[in-house]
Amino acid sequence: MAQKVQFVETVLRDANQSLIATRLPYEKFEPMLSTIDKVGYYAIECWGGATFDVCLRYLNEDPWERLRKIRAAVPNTKLQMLLRGQNVLGYSHYPDDYVKLFVKKAVENGIDIIRIFDALNDVKNLKVAMEATVNAGAIASGTLSYTTSPVHTHKKYVEMVKELKEMGASTICIKDMAGIMGPQEAYDLVSAIKDAVDLPIDLHTHSTTGLAFMTYLKAVEAGVDIIDTAISPFSGGTSQPATETLAYALRQLGYEVDLDDTCTKKMADYFKTVRDGYIADGTMMPKSMATDTQCLTYQVPGGMLSNLLSQLKQMHALDRFDEALLETPKVRKDMGYPPLVTPTSQMVGVQAVRNVLDGQRYKTVSKEIKAYCRGEYGETPAPIDPEIRKMILGDEKPLEGRYADTLEPIVDKTREKLGDLAKSDEDVLSYIAFPNLAEKFLEERKAKEENVATYTIVEA
Ligand code: CO
């Protein structure tokens, strides 16, 4: 029997985020939802930190309402979200009561699969979210943030995968957020994980460096079960490789791909028009569609390179770019080789720029790097350089154990504080995640409702 390969469609989340900064409003993709539901995808990735943020900040949409509407229109396909472990949707750690309630409500509102990752691959930061997902009856997809360094060996990844299984993971995701995984690495890592656990494996990568098609192919040869792709008009560049292309090539090679081509064609036609609109208004920039191999040379994700550039530009120091670029891997080494993913990528990048511009290393240190050295982001892959840690923390002792254990519960007191502004637990959760944005959203909603109420009374 032919080996079967399943697909996760990313057009609503990662492709949308990578190419047009998550600006797709609900109405723009609503007409395609019933078609998407008929394709035969393993899952549709549709929700995550950026979706939440942009819904509240720019689109004036309630992210929970968006999820419920997608759920109603997509009854037959699993809906997937991305969750940053103990960070949930944000950039720092939250108390456990918030993590648990968030997961419970996400599942109640329609999520089937929660892909749970930690920027440092510290499993202690995944545990509460994993357990809450299993308790809510959803699929916990235990995720490893892929990076390369002297301490990121296959042996270590396999150990992590075994721990994720213990914690209740029913699938494993290898998350290559920067698109730096090559075909041979994919083959070897998938093989190593397949040998160690009998769980379905999902590989997630980006087309940024142009490796992705080859990487997926070799991963499939090693037995990967699921790959993440984007419908062609929203594929390539910083997004995922195209769904239809992979379906075509894999079928030709004798693999079983159960996707409905009439439906993907319909989706491609529709999203082509949507994309052209974003190209015309400048939201989708040619740069994000291009292949960029710099990340392979510097082992720095593409997004980080552009952040470095814009930081230096602001400080009128663009001529120091090469120095900052050379300093980045050094800072990463000092910090114990964190994978460069949000938020560690920003922290390392900002520090590298400081070190270069100050002309002295670690003369100025951000409060995030201080917190990182204190252990507030979790255990680092390798120990932080002890001398540098001493320089940053002085006599202050770093934390032992899990930072979230030191945090007070937050849900009940936030509910009390919000009073009648919050109509549901979902409102409270939105507020905890993005206080300023959610407050503005909830106040506007309240004002709108009061206007409607007054109007109704006048009418009567
Ligand atoms: Co991604």
Kindly describe this structure:
This protein is α/β, with parallel strands linked by helices and 460 residues long. 52% of the residues lie in helices and 8% in strands. It has an 8-stranded parallel β-barrel, surrounded by 6 helices. The longest helix is centred in the C-terminal third of the chain and has 25 residues, at 435-459. The protein is globular, with a radius of gyration of 22 Å. Bound molecules: cobalt (II) ion (CO).
List the helices and strands and how they pair.
Elements: E1 6-9, H1 14-20, H2 26-29, H3 33-39, E2 43-47, H4 49-59, H5 63-73, E3 78-83, H6 96-108, E4 113-116, H7 127-135, E5 139-145, H8 154-166, E6 171-175, H9 183-196, E7 201-204, H10 212-221, E8 226-229, H11 243-252, H12 261-280, H13 286-289, H14 294-298, H15 302-314, H16 321-334, H17 344-358, H18 367-374, H19 386-393, H20 411-418, H21 425-433, H22 435-459
Parallel strand pairs: 1-2, 1-8, 2-3, 3-4, 4-5, 5-6, 6-7, 7-8
The structure holds cobalt (II) ion (CO).
